[in-house]
Amino acid sequence: YVVKTERVVGEVSLDNCQFVDPCTRPNTCEHGGKCSVKENKIVCDCTGTGYKGKNCHFTEYRKTCEELALLGYMEDKVYKIDIDGNGRFPPALVRCEFQSIEDATKTIVEHNLPSQVDVRSIAEKDFSFNITYREFTAEMLQELISHSLYCSQYVKYDCYKAPLDLHSATWLLGSKGTIVDYIGTANRGSCPCGMNKTCVSPDLSCNCDVSAGRWLSDEGHFESPDSLGITGMVFLQQKDLEEDAAGRITLGPLECVETNTQKYVVTFTTSQSYIEVPGWRKGDIAFSFRTTGEKAILLYQPPIRKDYPSFMVALTSDYQLTFNFTLNTGTNRALEVKSGRKLNNGEWQKIWIDYNDYHVRFMINDDYGMVDLLPEEEFGPFEGSMFIGGATAEHLKTSEVRQGLIGCFRGLVVNGEILDIHSYMSVHLSEIIKDCKPSCQPNKCQNGARCVELWSNFECVCENRWAHQGTFCET
């Protein structure tokens, strides 16, 4: 026997063969997918989970309201999003405001506390209550807050002979479980008026710290992560309250303005221009482009040596993108994804790529394709530099698509980090322009002529070449 010899690695016992149900292994089926074994194969049923793929890994929803806006959604209403993408948090309902006052996309999470709730009077007892946010746990609130540009939450206490007494008689709880004994951005035990000495009595910390015979109020906006996402409130009743004393609390929804992932924009004016940036190593990747060209390399990361991992994303026809990549085994794969809308119509097109041990998913706007990986195959990690909008002349020689992008490129996000592509514009400076300003907007062509977008210039195609001529078909 080899048992109990130095040739054995790990725990091995004789005549004690036990069957281990593969469905008991962690993450066999993710996100609540139902696991079963059929014909000696593990099968995950993802029905109703909001996820897809062999092990229910890939979310069916967008991560942010901004991503919905990039796909053309502009109606302010309730949408379901998945704030951590393929992560552990489930999809949840939020209200998206796409044209907010700040001229930024806003994500709003409502809660179950009505406005103007009576919390203090001679008839009330000491009490506390928990606040729940539509399908959001406290952890999910923190996730949203941490990934937003900034968040705020309005709070107001109205009082009639009912002092606020922050810290001693009134305190709130943030989503992190922290005690919030202040209003807005004030110091502990204080309200905004106490910070700038504008309270009804200058020596007080809050308007409602005086037992006045008239209605007063203290209000503000919470902005720090410790105070955002109020999940609990505690109100103790003061012993000396008068019979007609009253205190009321109002708490607004959690409102978050999202980070603008699309702020770095460039225009490539020739098919030979490109930007070299640090390569994609792992994680997901996303970007947007717009063009009127027929074919173009959009992203390219060549192998550092033969048969090493590499990938290329290219526009290959009016309605198709092709994703070529080399796996760790040296195997070349190609995924052609058909789009339901024309990809070279001059409008922005949004691309996402993500993967796990079983699949690589490639998304164009609302369409997607998946590549299954064999057990021995691995997608990435990639090495070397990545080229945006094209590649070097040497690399183009061996490429199926041999021209770069003439058009605009923006919003390169690698593994959750926004890449400042402007800072890498060291070469081809005369051929690459910051921002994206289509030359056909406004249309300078006259007499019904069609404007052809060239992204640094334009061409007018006269409706009737015999009747009109000139640069603008003006004569």
The rough form would be described as globular
Largest sheet, in brief, is: 8 strands, antiparallel
Helix content: under 10%
Quaternary assembly: single chain
User: Count of helices?
Assistant: 4
Structural class: mainly beta
CATH fold descriptor of the largest domain: Jelly Rolls
User: Would you identify the CATH architecture of the largest domain?
Assistant: Sandwich
The CATH class name of the largest domain reads Mainly Beta
What is the tally of beta strands?
32
Poorly predicted tracts of residues: none
Q: How many structural units, i.e. domains?
A: 3
Taken as a percent bin, the fraction of beta residues is 25-35%
Q: Please report the distance between the alpha carbons of the first and last residues.
A: 98 Å
Estimate the mean pLDDT confidence: 90
* Radius of gyration from the alpha-carbon trace, in angstroms: 30 Å
